[in-house]
Design brief:
Elements lengths: L3 E4 L4 H12 L5 E4 L7 H11 L1 H4 L5 H4 L3 H4 L4 H10 L8 E3 L4 E3 L3 H8 L2
Helix pairs in contact: 2-6
Length: 116
């Protein structure tokens, strides 16, 4: 099956991942979760696999703009609710390989993933 790359097209890190996949001849589907949204099941799976602390992008402007009440007492359920309401809070990109996912982009991790 073709992997799916989740992200936002104008994100620099997503652009780097897309270029890497293209340059290495790896077919992929792209899911723009700013336009198409994201479903709860996907987010719950990513959080179960990696932890909400990895999946939630707390360094972005969307998270930083939240009021203190929304930032307080974060847990998996609250993080998922925030990401569903504001998909740009999801760390980018997420590469869904069907049997596992990779959050973020590092060329050496993609290289190891597709080696062989």
């Amino acid at each position: 099956m073709t992997p799916t790359l989740y992200g936002i097209p104008n994100c620099d890190t997503v652009k780097k991942a897309r270029v890497w996949l293209d340059q290495h001849g790896r077919a992929f589907a792209f899911h723009d979760y700013k336009k198409a949204g994201i479903d709860r099941a996907s987010l719950e799976g990513w959080v179960a696999e990696h932890g909400w602390e990895i999946v939630l992008n707390r360094n972005g402007t969307t998270f930083k703009a939240l009021d203190a009440a929304n930032k307080a007492d974060l847990n998996a359920d609250k993080a998922i609710a925030l990401m569903l309401a504001h998909p740009s809070m999801i760390k980018r990109p997420v590469l869904d390989l069907r049997d596992r996912t990779i959050v973020g982009f590092k060329p050496e991790i993609y290289e190891a993933t597709f080696a062989g």
